[in-house]
Amino acid sequence: MDRQILARLNEMRRKRQAAILVTDLAGGPDRLIVEGDRMDGALADAAASAFRSGKSSAVEIEGQSLFLNVHLPPPRIVVIGAVHISQVLARMAALAGFDITIIDPRTAFATPERFEGIDLIADWPVDAFKERSLDSYMALVAVTHDPKIDDEPIAQALRTGCFYVGALGSRKTHAGRLERMKRAGLTEADLGRIHAPIGLAIGAASPAEIAAAILAEIIASLRGRDVSLPKGAPP
């Protein structure tokens, strides 16, 4: 592999940006495609499909045999709120291949005993994000029902370009949330990205069912996201 391409690929990994190494199986030069690159034609379609699926594969494009080696950042779910739903969601998410972090400043909820083996941060989200910033390969799930805890991370997730932003609460609760966020300067387009009520509409009632609905919606957002335009904050 060309050293310049390798250096750039390593840079993309450090920045948690997705990239595809395109290898010409006939011996032509390698090429690196970064998610968000503007492209046209059959290679653009193949790259978009590979970014969504995360699977490497060989393709035939315009008489060329190419191998698309996909390098995606590990997707992470950041949950605001160490509640019953979070306990179930943490286990389900790990089985589905997601890294997961639980953040809650309420130390009575955010205990190692309730979240054994889970990346748990007993701190205010705004402080936690100073050390661990959000990015476009993260999903933000807000489930505390407390705007003092939920609002700021939701706003940060929208500004950063998280691929999924969901918030627990009734339609009335969400309407109040939208008004607060409008006053904070978020646009209608930003607010339209919030999944609320959170999770797929499957009639979920128990914490386990709600967690399953949330995880399914996150997976649908990850696999169906728009990869044709630049996403998130500039590098």
From TrEMBL:
Domain XdhC Rossmann: 77-218
Pfam families assigned to the protein according to its UniProt record, in alphabetical order: XdhC_C
InterPro entries: MoCofactor_Util/Proc, XdhC_Rossmann_dom
PANTHER family per record: ALDEHYDE OXIDOREDUCTASE MOLYBDENUM COFACTOR ASSEMBLY PROTEIN, MOLYBDENUM COFACTOR INSERTION CHAPERONE PAOD
UniProt-recorded name of the protein: Xanthine dehydrogenase accessory factor
